[in-house]
# Entry
Amino acid sequence: MNPGKNEKIDQKFSAILEAAERRRKAFTETPVPKIHIGMATCGIASGALETKKAFEEILAERNVEAIIHPVGCIGHCYAEPVVIIDHPDSGFPPIFYPEVTAGKAQMLVKLFLGEGDPRFEHILGATMENDLIPSLMEFPRFNQEKRVVMEKCGHINPEDIYDYIAEGGYSTLAKVLQLSPDEIINEVEHSGLRGRGGAGFPTGRKWKLARNTVAQEKIVICNADEGDPGAYMDRTILESNPHQVIEGMAICAYAVGAHKAVVYVRSEYPLAVNIVTKAIGQAEELGLLGKGILGSGFDLEIDVFQGSGAFVCGEETALIRSIEGYRGMPRHRPPYPVQKGLWNTPTIINNVKTLASVPPILDNGAAWYRDIGTENSPGTAIFSIVGNVVHAGLVEIPMGVSLRSLIFDICGGIPNKKKFKAVQIGGPSGGCLNEDFLDTPIDFDSLTEAGAMMGSGGMVVMDEDTCMVEVARYFLDFTQKESCGKCTFCRIGTYHLLKILQRLTKGEGLDGDLELLETLSRDIKAGSLCGLGKTAPNPVLTSLKYFREEYEAHVKEKRCPALMCRALTAFYFDLDLCARGCDACATCCPVDAVFTTSNRKKGVDQELCVKCGECLVACPPEYDAVRKVSPPNLVPFIEKIPDKKEEGR
Amino acid sequence: MPKLRVDGKEIETKQGTTLLQGCLDNDIYIPNLCFLESMEDPSASCRMCFVEIEGEKQPITSCTVNVKDDMVVKTDTPAVRQLQRTALRLLLSVHHVDCKHCPANKKCELQRIAKFLKVGLKPKGLERYLQETEIDRNHPFINHYPNRCVLCGKCVHICRRQHGQSVWTFAQRGFDTVISAYGEAGASSLTCGKCDACVKICPVGALTFKDVQEDG
Ligand SMILES: Cc1cc2nc3c(=O)[nH]c(=O)nc-3n(C[C@H](O)[C@H](O)[C@H](O)COP(=O)(O)O)c2cc1C
Ligand code: SF4
Ligand code: SF4
Ligand code: FES
# Structure
C-alpha cells in the first residue's frame, strides 16, 4: 500500500459516481410520481408488503404510472407502514403519510395521483418546507433529532448500491484510501468516537492497538448480534442502509491492516442477513470490496456469519468462540480480541453503529463530530424507544439531550394521561431510573453514574401502572435464561435473584429478602466472569434503590402498589355504581367468575377469578363500577346467592 | 525467578506461572476448583481463587494473572473472603449434600474449601435447588451426578487433552447448564472403558464408573 494522492482511485470512483448520479438524475427529474414505502422489518410487520401490493395492483388497474421505491426504516415505527409520495405535477411537495394500509394506498392512488387531491386528513407532513402543507420539521420528533448514522435510512433503497453512492456513499472510502492508516486512526481518535456496543470504549484507541499489533493477518468483525429484548437499532440500520456499515468496515480494515472481515448477525434477522449479503455482492461487483479496491493495493473480503441468537454471543469473546464453531462461552480477558481473537488472529470488534459512524466522521472531520454531543461523549445516540410512550420508534439524538426532552418532547410523552414512572435504559444490563433522573443528560458517563447504562440503546418507558418488582423479575428471567452457565455467580447467583423476585411478586416474600437481593447482587457484579453477569443485577439494584417502598410493600403488606402482580390484586364491583340488570362484565368473563347478587347487581367469585381484567374493560364507562385493589383482602364481602339450578339438582 | 510478597511473606516462583500456581507451590492455599496447570487458557469459571493485588481496585482471580516480580498480594482480605464464601454458598445451594454416600467423601474439594472458609456444608439463607436428574446414565461406562457437579469443566479439558476431542461437553444454558456426554457413540471408540482421566480429575464425586450390579 502506498498512501498519498492516487489518481487511479479517484478515476475509478468518479466513474462509479457518475453512473450513480446519472441514475439519480433520471429518477428525480422524471415527472412520474414516486411512492417511497418503508420496507424494513418494522414496516413489514405493520403490513408494508400488503401496502406495496395494493399500490402495484391499483396502479396497474387504473393504468397510472408511478415508481415504487422501496426504502428502509425512517425511524417512525409508531406510524408504520410509512409512505412518502412525491408527485411533482400536483404542485405539492413530497408528502409523508402514516399508517398507510392497503385501503389507504388505493385511495391515495385514486385521489392524489388521479385527481391531485392529497387528502389532507391523512397527511403527517411534508418532507420539505413549502407554503401548502406543514413541514415535518415543525414537529419535535423530527427537528430535535440529529442524524449521523441514520441520515440516509428511509430515504434510499438499501438494495441498490447506486442509491447510496448518489447520496455521497463510498466517497469517504475513496478519499481515505489515499491517506495513511495512521492519519485515519488519528482522525477517529480526535473525533472522540466511543463504541456503541455498550461499554463506550474509545474506538480510535482500539484501532490503534490493533494497528500496532504485529501479525500476518488481522480480522474485523461487525457485531450485529443485538440480543437485548426490545432493541432493534442495529437490525434497522443493516436493513435500511447496509452500505454505510460496509464502508465503515472497509475503512476500519484498511486502517488496522486487515484483509478479512465478518458481519456477525443473528439468524433471527433474515431480512438483515439478505440485505447485507446482497450489499456485499454489489460492492464487490463495483470493485469497492475484494481484490485491489478501487485500483489501490488494498484487498478486503467480507463474509456474513449467522449467529444462532444467544444473547451472550454478543459478548466479544463468546462471539469469537461461536464463529469458531464452539459453544458461545465468554473467556477471561486479557488477552483481548485485539491481541488474540478469531482463530487466534488479532481481531477488532465494533458495533454496527460504531462502524456506521466512521464514514460521516472521516467525511466531515473530527471537529464536526466533536461539535455534536458532549465533551466526553461526542456524536449521537440511537435508541429504540418502546413501552408507554406516544411516538415509539428509533430516535437518533445528540448526546447530552435530557431524558425529559427525549421522552416528553421528542417522543410525545406518556399516552392515556398516565403519569411517568420509570425508564429502563440499557436493557438487561441497564437500570431503572425514576423521575428524579429526568433531567439527566444522556451520555455514557451520566447514565453509568446513575446506575443505568447506555448499553446498546434499548429504552423502555413505563407509566404508573408498571410494577418495578415485576420489571426486575422480567429482566432477571431473561438474563438467567441467557447466562452461558459457565461461572458460579452468574449461573447460580442470578437464579437465586430470580427466585426471590418471583416470590415477592407472588406475595411470598420473606423478611431479609431485600437485603439478600442486595448482597447477592453486589457479589454477582464483583464476582462474575463476563459483562453479562457483571451487569445482570443492575435492574435489581437500581429498582431497589429508586423504588424501595414498592419492594417493601410487596414484602411487608403483600401489596402491589401498581396493581400489576396478579397474586396480589383482586377485582370487585362497587355496588353503588354497578347498574342493576347490566350483564356486560358477566358475559365477557372467561371463567364465569361473575355472579348476580340478590338485588341483581354483580359480584366476583374470588376463588374462580383469574384476574384477567376483562370486566374492567367491559364495564360501560358511565357506570365504571369495577375496582382493582391490592392486597386482595381489601375486597368487601359480597354475598353470593346459591345457584338455583345447582340447588334444584 | 520472580519474587513476590504474599500475605507479608516473600516467595519465589517459576517464571511464567500463574499467581495461583505460584502460591500453591509455596504452600499458600487459595481455594480453587477449575484450574489445571496444563491449561493454556484457564477457564476461570469457579470464581473461587480471588486475591487482592496491590494496584488493583477489586479482588481478581489468581488463576488468570501471571506472577510478576515485586507483586504484592493478599489472599485473606474481607473482600476476598466475601466473594469466596458467596461462591461456595452458591455452589452448595445447588449441591446434594450427602457426603456419607459419596465416593469423594474426605477427598472432596468442596469439603476442603468449606472447612478452609469455615462455611457449613448446609449454609442458611439460600434456598436449595436441585436438578431433577439425580444420575445421568447416558454415558456407556460412566455415570454423572448433576447434583454433585460443580461445573468446573476439568473433565472436559482433560478428555480433550488426552483424546483430542472431548466426550464431555457443556449442555443447556443458564441454571440448567450441565455436563453431558453427547458423543456417546464416539465414547466407546475413545476407549472410555480403559481411561479414567475424567473420573480421577473430578474434584467432587460427580463422575463414577458404572457399577455392574447397579446398571444390571
Ligand atoms: C452479554 C453481552 C452482550 C453483548 N451484546 C452485544 C451486542 O449485541 N452488540 C454489540 O455490538 N456489542 C455487544 N456487547 C459488547 C461487546 O462485547 C463489545 O464490547 C462490542 O461489540 C465492542 O464494540 P464497540 O467498541 O463498537 O462498542 C455485549 C457484551 C456483553 C457482555
Ligand atoms: S458471567 Fe454469566 S454469561 Fe458470563 S461467563 Fe459467567 S456464566 Fe457465562
Ligand atoms: S463432572 Fe466433575 S470434573 Fe466434570 S465439570 Fe463436574 S465437577 Fe468438574
Ligand atoms: S480456579 Fe480461578 S476461577 Fe476457578
